[in-house]
Design brief:
Protein name: ComF family protein
CATH topology of the largest domain: Rossmann fold
Structural class: alpha/beta
Pfam family, one: Pribosyltran
Order of helices and strands: HEEHEEEHHEHHEEHEHEHEH
InterPro entries: ComF/GntX_DNA_util-trans (IPR051910), PRTase-like (IPR029057), PRTase_dom (IPR000836)
Number of strands: 11
Distance between the termini: 35 Å
CATH class of the largest domain: Alpha Beta
Number of domains: 2
Radius of gyration: 18 Å
Organism: Luethyella okanaganae
Shape: globular
Family: Belongs to the ComF/GntX family.
C-alpha cells in the first residue's frame, strides 16, 4: 500500500503544478493537507464518555483537525475524505476492540454501524451526508437506521441540559425497519458513529431511539471531541458548526 500511496501523492503534487491546490487547514500551496497539518491528523484513539455512554475518539476538535473537518463539511473539500475516513475507521476499530465483525448481518455476533441522519437543510446545503461519506471511504457500511421524527429548535446558544431536552424524542427507527419481522432490530447490536461530540446529547438521543425499538448500543465512535467547558463558554459560532 505504501507504493500506491506514494504514487497517489506524486500524482497530486504533479497536478498542483498545473492547478494549484491549497492545504485545507492552513492554506499553504500543497496537496489536500500539507505535511505539518497531516501530522496533526495522525489518529490517536482515546476513550471518553458523555451522559454515561462510552465514546472512542481519535482527535481533539482543535487546530488543524478542526479546520480540516470544517473544510470537509462546510467548504466542499471532499478531497479530505480519505484522511478523515482513515481517522474514523481508527475510532471504530478502537471502539470494537477488534472483537466484533463489522457489517449489516442480522446475526447477534455482528455489530452494525449507525449514523445520525442529517437535517433536510444540511442535506440540501451539502448534497451529501458527511459521516456516511467517510465511512464508505474507509470501506465500512453504515446503516440508515434512524430518521428525524419531529423538527427541533436551533441548538445555538443552548447549554448542556437545554441541548439534551431540545433533542429528546427527535429520532426514531425507520418504520419499515421496525415493523418488518425480518429486519427487526431486537437483539441486534449497534455502534453509533458521528463526526464531532460536544455534550453527547445527539448520541444519547440516538441510543434512546435504538433501545426503544429493541436494539442494544455498545457505545459510540467519533472523529473528534470538543472538550467540555462551562455552558457560558460555548461559542454560538462553534456550536452552529456542530449542528446538523
Amino acid at each position: 500500500m505504501g507504493g500506491l500511496d506514494g504514487l497517489a501523492r506524486a500524482a497530486t503534487e504533479a497536478f498542483c503544478v498545473v492547478v494549484p491546490i491549497v492545504c485545507a487547514s492552513c492554506g499553504r500551496p500543497d496537496g489536500s493537507l500539507c505535511a505539518a497539518c497531516l501530522a496533526e491528523l495522525e489518529p490517536r484513539p482515546h476513550l471518553t464518555a458523555r451522559l454515561g455512554i462510552p465514546i472512542w475518539c481519535v482527535y481533539d476538535y482543535d487546530g488543524a483537525v478542526r479546520r480540516a473537518i470544517i473544510a470537509f463539511k462546510d467548504a466542499g473539500r471532499t478531497d479530505l475524505a480519505r484522511v478523515l475516513g482513515r481517522g474514523l475507521r481508527a475510532a471504530v476499530s478502537a471502539a470494537l476492540g477488534g472483537g466484533f465483525p463489522l457489517g449489516l448481518a442480522s446475526g447477534a455476533s455482528a455489530v452494525e454501524l449507525v449514523t445520525i441522519p442529517s437535517s433536510r437543510t444540511s442535506w440540501r446545503a451539502r448534497g451529501y451526508h458527511p459521516v456516511g461519506v467517510l465511512l464508505r471511504r474507509a470501506g465500512l457500511r453504515p446503516s440508515a437506521l434512524l430518521r428525524h421524527s419531529i423538527a427541533r429548535a436551533d441548538q445555538v446558544g443552548l447549554g448542556r441540559e437545554a441541548r439534551r431536552v431540545n433533542l429528546e424524542g427527535t429520532l426514531v427507527v425507520r418504520s419499515g425497519i421496525r415493523r418488518s419481522r425480518r429486519a427487526s432490530i431486537a437483539g441486534r447490536a449497534f455502534l453509533i458513529v458521528d463526526d464531532i461530540v460536544t455534550t453527547g446529547a445527539t448520541i444519547q438521543e440516538a441510543a434512546r431511539a435504538i433501545e426503544a425499538a429493541g436494539g442494544s448500543v455498545l457505545g459510540a465512535a467519533v472523529l473528534a471531541e470538543t472538550r467540555l467547558r462551562s455552558d457560558r463558554n460555548f461559542g454560538a459560532r462553534e456550536t452552529r458548526r456542530n449542528n446538523r
